[in-house]
Amino acid sequence: MKASSLIAFQGARGAFSEEAARKLAGSRAAVLPCERFEDVFRALKSGRAAGAVVPIENTLAGPVYENYDLLQAFELPIVAETSVRIVHNLMAPPGVSFAKIRRVYSHPVALGQCLDFFARNPRIERIPFYDTAGSAKMVMEEKLPDAGAIASTVAAEIYGAHILRRSIESDRRNFTRFFLLRRPEYARHHPVHAARGAQWKTSIVFGTRNTPGALFRALSAFALRDLNLTKIESRPLRGRPWEYAFYLDFLGRVDSPNARNALNHLGELADFLRVLGCYPKGA
User: Fold this and answer.
1) Which one of 9, 117, 129, 178 is the catalytic residue?
2) What is the pLDDT of residues 58-76, one digit of tens each?
3) Is-catalytic flag, 176?
4) 93-148: per-residue pLDDT in tens?
5) What is the DSSP string of 100-146?
6) Is 178 one of the annotated active-site residues of the chain?
7) Rounded distance, CA 26 to CA 23, Å?
8) Which position among 132, 176, 202, 208 bears the catalytic label?
9) What predicted TM-score, i.e. pTM, was given to this entire model?
10) The 147-151 sheet, strands edge to edge
11) Which helix (H) or strand (E) holds 37?
């Protein structure tokens, strides 16, 4: 498959990131599974992939801090976002019934999001695995007679697993937000378009001096222009103990007059400021 069409993501085929890739890059998008998040960024940066899909936050587990740090380190622009409802399914090789299940493999976060199911079935042992889809792949390859996996419907389809119990997550309002990243030159030559009337979102990262009121003054740049902040996250700055970078999302296009004025204002106050992307607000 040509690198010009590949979308990189972390995990095995059938991971929720692949579902996000299909939503963001089309149902027929060719994908490049990667072992680690950093591998995803490197695949895009080096040209091995044309795009990358990464999770940035989950409504239950919270932010994916590693990807916040990698966004700043690799300088790959965000061009789109989407949310995927996380539906956890118990699956096993064909012929393995639910009554035979004694072990279930999955990512630790997925196991933790199915605690009610395990409370109702105390005979079943929870075994952490590196990836949800990877656990389905392993269970099918090993043909384990007493084991299952918790993964997506897509994973069951790809590996030929039989779904024994559907939607076993404890909280049905479980969503993960994903970004689609491109290389800077691609983003310059392929401007993002949105449907008429669609809202836009802009993501930035900045740092301020550790002085009284510095963050208040930085955020006032947006309040004074009636720009709605939808997310703010802080991360430690490497090499600068007890100093932080702030990741911020606000509603609006980066080139609108209010946004330009706000960013110019913030630029006068911040030690550094970078726009991570401007893209249509995802569903």
Assistant:
1) 178
2) 999 899 999 999 999 999 9
3) yes
4) 999 999 999 999 999 999 999 999 999 999 999 999 999 999 999 999 999 999 99
5) G--EEEE-HHHHHTTHHHHHH-TTSEEEE-S-HHHHHHHHHHHT-TT
6) yes
7) 6
8) 176
9) 0.90
10) 125-128, 103-106, 147-151, 89-92, 162-165
11) helix 37-46
